[in-house]
Design brief:
five-stranded mixed β-sheet, 5 strands, elongated
């Protein structure tokens, strides 16, 4: 059997797949970037809409933390970066192949 996206055999294929085994490409994800105010006036950039099974959220978080020079975590299938880094995050996710959109105010 071969992969429908890359045409390689399934044992060699590295295409991201969801829980059902279907190929999920980055541009198919509905990625949203929003800013949230937390207690004590702290601002957090939250990224949602990335399939946690198909994509390694920890690896994406590591790249975003390095690019933004900020802390962060993965919480309930969302990536959180400390501070307001919406523009940097948007640029970084576009470079990774996603089509992010800003949400909220």
């Amino acid at each position: 059997m071969t992969c429908e996206a890359c045409e390689k055999s399934l044992d060699v294929c590295r295409c991201p797949r969801n829980a059902l085994g279907e190929v999920v490409l980055p541009q198919q994800q509905k990625v949203r970037i929003r800013r949230e105010k937390r207690k004590n006036g702290k601002t957090v950039t939250v990224i949602t809409g990335i399939d946690p099974i198909a994509f390694d959220l920890q690896a994406i978080l590591r790249q975003l933390k390095t690019a933004c020079a900020a802390g962060g975590a993965v919480a309930s299938d969302a990536i959180e970066i400390q501070g307001d880094h919406r523009e940097k995050v948007m640029t970084m996710l576009r470079d990774l192949g996603f089509c992010p959109r800003l949400a909220g105010g």
